[in-house]
Each structure stands twice: as structure tokens, then as C-alpha cells.
Amino acid sequence: MEGTNTELTPSFTTISMNQVVRSAHVNKCNHLDGGQLLKWVDICACLSAERLAAYPCVTVSVDDLYFEQEIKLGDVLSLKAKVNRVFNTSMEVGVKAFCESLRNNTRVLVCKAYITFVALDKQAKKVKLPCMECTSDSQQVRFALASERRRVRISHSTTVQKLLDDYEPTPINMKAYDRVTDDVFKSNRYVKGADTSVESVELVLPPHANHHGNTFGGQIMAWMENNASISAGRYFGSEATLKSVDMVHFKGPSTVGDRVVIHSTVNNAFKNSLEVGVRVEAYRYEDGRTGPTRHINSAFFTYDATEDHREFPTFIPINEEGERRMKEACARRKLRFDRRYSLSQETSSTSSISSCGDLPRRSSIMINSSNSTMLCCSNIITFSQLASLRDWKVISSTGETELATREKDGVLSFRVTLNFNKHKYDAGKVFKVLRNPTLRPLWDSMMQSCDEVSCVSRDDSVYHLIVRSPDVEKSNDFVLLVSSRVPETESGSYKVAMRSVELSSFPETEEYQRMINTCSGFLISSKKNICTKIVYYNNASAQIASYITRDMAGLSKKYHTTFTSLHKYLNEHIGNNSNL
To answer: In this structure, what are the phi and psi dihedrals at residue 315, rounded to the nearest 5 degrees?
Structure first.
């Protein structure tokens, strides 16, 4: 079916899978078992990865999984997987799972997953993967967003430690718990962490592995979820519902013949939910001896109680190690919220993007060391979605500039394009100008001043901008996170994304009217590193709308004038490269 000359595109890697939920797949509440769902998601993603690689693939990591809908006995689970991006020896596969009710003729989203795979040859060595060509705008967007998610994956453990260093959770008063007697524990008012511990041993058999003998990652996760659900049930005293799986990283492989040991325990409880930590190890018998124990992976599962009306017992760690896990669970919980609501591609909002999901319209968020990575990635993701929109309506144009707007569901976005028809500027130099907002007062007459107030990373900084108001004498100010990215392919574009954040050192003052920028930025297109055009996008908030409505009504040409001034600045400071 797949010839050797087949063009490798994301569409080529698409895999669809449909499963009827039968009695063997459900728990006692007749809902699909979480471990079975994880197994199906991983298998579907693996098939997509292997279609691209043409080699056996193994799971390396799984990003956060959030389960939005319970699947009942008799429902149909529909999965679709597609490779989003190839890096070098690894690739990211995106999976969407939907629940289809044959009784009600409805179809709802269950979960989305991003899974990283590597391909292995016969010697179990990593294989350099073939390049994949993106042939549509939506594929280009997914390609770019995969890079931002990779940044979050790499920085995950560091971010958890930063959060623990910066925020000290409420200390545990162990002496107070020392006075709790066994009789009190028996009354179900308290639960010790040790009482939720579960250990299971599984033998890896051929059905659990691929034809090279490597255990499927989904099988490992299914065993992990089985253990975790028992730990959660011991705390709740009833069935628990799996709601999320924290970032899973596989440290090493397991193979047919291995004994896989799964340890699980409740790390912390939060009112009607809790976190279970799971550690997986493996060993095998070699020449009459037990071989060394290998760490396979660790993960964290979040469960909700199925009986919300009950008052659940107080959770108590029993030693310093338990206290550490309890505090780390608090940190991970915060990061889950940050990733879910700050890095979400598709959130419910008043502004929808038909081709890429919803564009979040958020107010500013306080930036700190624990959430800065997520906010920077969210900044690029949201801007990439805005830049991928279509159906723009041209309002006015001059020889080199064009103003266009897009209105949907009462939300206004605008776009300003500066074309370079006769001039040739080095795209990298143009990028250096636009990524540095402190230069903007030199070409934008509305900008009074701009200062860098915090450096987040080499590519991300926070700036304080003071801007003239179009309507009143009092100036406006912004605190903006500016994130810049260079193209990763020859056909890619330079990006400078901006969004409002809050910074404790720059509170709102009476001197200026604090403004909110939900999403804006520059897209710099180039050909052979020569800039062909600059496009400025802005998802206008109600506060910013007054800046653009004058131009829309034909009462001014402020944006045309501003970008003509930018062209003049580039010509004077970069020079015309027409002789290159």
C-alpha cells in the first residue's frame, strides 16, 4: 500500500481506529477502563509513527492527558492519529479520541494526546527519520506548535523544582499527627499514605510486545493505571474516575520475558480528587540468577471521586519522603492547571478559529519562574493560530501596505501587511529589529517609550510600553511578554509574538491606563533569506479596538503611516541589499 516513493506528509501518516466498548473493557460502573483507553491511544499513535518510519517504533513520552468524557458500555471509541512533526530520531504524534453513542447518535471529544516515538532498527538502535513535508497551513501550524510543546517537555522537571523553591506549601505538622491513635485511623477520619500503597508484578508475554519483543508503552501504562486505580480506591473507599495523566517519560525499554514491578501510592489528596504516583521497574532471570532491576518509567495519575457528596478522610504522609511527595504533588497540580489553561490550543472562548481550534481571549496572567515556560510557549501557539486564520477582508491599501480585518462572533482581529516589491532586506536583520520593542519608538509615533524589565530566556523577555492614547490625554501602558522564534525550515517564517502579562514589579498606576493585549505579533516571510513581507496581526481587545476603528472608518491612515515609517527605518538602518 505504501510504496517507497510515496510523498511523506502528515496526511499520509493518518491512522483511524474504531473500537466498540465491550464488557471486558469496562469497570464495575460500566465505564471504559482508563488503562484500556491508554492502551488504545498508544497503539493508534504507534501505527501512525510506524507508517512514517517504516520501522518498529517505541513510546518515549506522553504529554498530559485530560479525560473530558466517560465512555459507557456499548459506545464506540473513534481514534485518529497523525504525525505532527519529525525532529531527528524522534517524532510527535497527535491523537484525538471521540466517543460515539449509537443510542443517541452523538459524538463528543474524550481526550487529546501528544506522544513522542523513536524508531528502532534490528539492533535496537535509533533510526534517523525521513523528512516530512507540510502541504497545508494547518499542517504548518501543528508543525510549529510541536516545537513549543517539546520545550515544555524538556523543561518539565526543572519547572517543578523551581516551583518548589519559590513557593513553600503549608508545612505538615507531623507532631500533631503523632497524637492520632490507631482507633482514630480505624474510624476512617484519616488515611495514612502507606495504607494506599499497591505493588503488582506482571510477566511480559508476546501479546504485550511488538515483533521485536519491546513492550508496548500503552500496555505499561495500562498496568500502571490498574495499580493507581486501586490506590485511589483505597483512599476514597469506592470507585475512582481517572481524570488526567501527568507527563510520562520512559527511561528504558522492557522486553518479552521481563518481570515488570509496578509500585503505586497516593501522594496527596485535594478535597474530591487525589494524585497517585506510580513507579515501574523491570528485571529478568539470567543464568540462574535475578538480573539487575531497571527503572522503566514513572508517572502521576489524577482521580476524581465518584461520590462527591461524601466527606473524605484526611490524608497523612508517614515520613519525610511522604512529605516530599505531598509537596511535589501540590507543585504538579499547579503546573497541570498552568498547562491546561495557559497552553491549551483549543479552549472555550468567544473567539473561534475554524481551522485550528479556538483562540483564547484571556486577560493578563502573573508571570513567574514556575509558569514562564508555559506562558512563552502559549504566546507562540496563540499567535501561530491567529496568523493561520483565513477570510480576511481588505479595508484599505496603498502601494506597499494593506489593512485587513476579520470579525467573527463579535471579536475583531486586524492584519497589516508591508510588502517589499523593490527592496531587498536581509530577513535576519529585519527580525532583529522587530524582536526588540525598545526600537519601536524610533519608527512608531504612537509609542512613547519601551523598556525591558525582565529577561525570561534568550528568546523571551517582558517589556513595559507606554503608548499615546487615541482618545484621551492620559497615556496607556502595556506589560508585554515578547517571544521570538527563528524559522526551523527553509519555508518557515520568523515570528515575534506578544501578549499581556502581569509583573509584580510593575503594578497598575494612576499615571497610565493599563491596557490588555490578548495576542499580537509580527510574521516575517522570506525567500533565500531575503525578506518578502512583514505581516502584523492583532486580536483586538475592546480597549485596543479604538486604535483600529478610526482607520477602518477611513478617518485616518495611522497604520499605513506607521508601517511606511517602519519601511523607511529599515531602509536607513539595514540598507538595500539589491546588489547581493
So the answer is: -90, 135
What are the beta bridge partners of residue 301?
A: 245, 276
CA distance linking residue 268 with residue 262, whole number of Å: 19
Q: Which residue is listed with cell 458500555?
A: 73
Grid coordinates of 409: 462572533
Mean pLDDT by groups of 10 residues along the chain of 580 residues: 62 95 90 93 95 93 87 94 93 95 89 92 90 82 82 74 60 48 58 91 92 88 95 90 88 92 94 91 92 93 78 83 87 75 43 38 70 86 88 86 84 90 88 95 92 93 89 84 88 90 87 89 91 91 68 75 92 64
Cβ neighbours of 186 (radius 10 Å):
9
> Contact 404/392 with Cβ under 8 angstroms?
yes
Residue that has been written with the C-alpha cell 514513572 in this structure: 298
Q: Which of 341, 162, 169 is nearest to 244 (CA)?
A: 341
C-alpha–C-alpha distance, residues 128 and 59, integer Å: 16
Closest CA to 331 of 457, 247, 250: 247
369 three-state secondary structure: coil
Strand ranges for 10-75 from DSSP E: 15-20, 57-62, 65-66
Buried b (16+ CB within 10 A) or exposed e, 3-38: eeeeebbbebbebebebebeeebbbeeebbbbbbbb
3-class secondary-structure state, position 366: strand
Contact status, residue 236 vs residue 184, Cβ threshold 8 Å: no
Backbone CA torsion sign across 137, 140, 144, 150: positive
Paired with 101 in beta bridges are: 106
